[in-house]
Amino acid sequence: MTTIAYKDGIIACDSRLTWGTTIIDDNWSKKIERKGRLFFLSGIPEDFEDFFELYFSGRQTHHRYLNVCGLLVENNFLYEVYVCDKGNRLYKLKLFLDRTTAYGSGGDFAFTAMDMGGTAKEAIKMAIKRNTSTGGRIRTYKLPFYSQGKRQLPKIKTPAKKGKVSKAAIKKAVESVMAKRK
To answer: Tell me: domain 3-142, CATH 3.60.20.10, correct?
Structure first.
């Protein structure tokens, strides 16, 4: 398996590839670029191609459970991606940049390390210490669009004048935000 952690604009992951209890490789990259998007995936590498087919086409090309989850960097946003319902449904949830998250077999250890004040990289170090399926080199990726404390939501411009804001101004601001998301 693997461990992937996110905190404060940094994605960190180990580089161990295992099959059951056997270490296959300690220099495996968890960062995969596809069609201009960056995926950081945990799970069974043999399932990744079926995961990409489901993600990009919406079609299920397999008839088995997919074991894939992780992070996606797309259009200056960070998302959690995973497959549920026996591989039939793919979920993509936008993550707030001021939150922490972790995935994979060492995810619980990584979460605990970050909850205790550790960085994403330190969280992977802890997972390596406690989880046999996590190991090898630690790789980090800094989100280029991260600014400290940013919640990844566009700003809504409000009228400069003091007092009540009209319903029309609120509606216009909401429409502006929705147009930017398309």
So the answer is: yes
